[in-house]
Please model this.
Amino acid sequence: MQQKLKNKNKLISGFTRTPKFGVTPKGGGFTLIETLFGVAIFVLIALALTLFSRNVWVYNSFVSEGLTGTDAARQILKTMVSEIRTASVASNGAYAIDQANVSSFIFYSDIDNDNLREKVRYFLVGTTLQKGVIKPTGSPLTYNSADEKISILASDTTSLAFDYFNKNYDGTSAALTFPINIPDVRLIKITVTLDKDPNRAPLPATFSTQVSIRNLKDNL
Model:
């Protein structure tokens, strides 16, 4: 009898009982439930880190595209303002402004400092903002439309708009109505909207600036 009790005590003494998972061998072993629980925690942590990394990458991508779009728009508007501000009488004697439309503007300006005034055209074709330049040739000087050199300023433009104001513009005055009486124009407001990818963020960004023409009488 005593021998049986000793054997039973030896059997029991080889294990410890845990409150939830039953018998666990002495020496730090894990039950199947504990192992599965640990694996589940590891998977959740790995998933959380993966999602966090992805969100950081996507956010950085949005920020980068936004900054790139902003820089591109600033450069475009800087060029347009610089060339429009110095608009003046054409080399053949034509008025400084040739056409003033809703989404296109044509004027004369010496944009390459060669003492000849080029005919410059800003316009939108689909989603492409373009610039056309015609250098005067011949004697007397003329502007041949066949000589126009077109360059692309931006290929992700959703809109281009020109608003025109007269000498009475005070910062709040309404723009001139179309069709524009060209001799009245003294200041032009340029508005450009760029959208790198219409199917994803960031949203379209709109940029606007104003420029007055120095060489026109009663200029602002």
Strands lie at 15-18, 22-25, 97-100, 104-109, 118-125, 128-134, 149-154, 157-165, 187-194, 205-212. The CA atoms of residues 15 and 25 lie 5 Å apart.
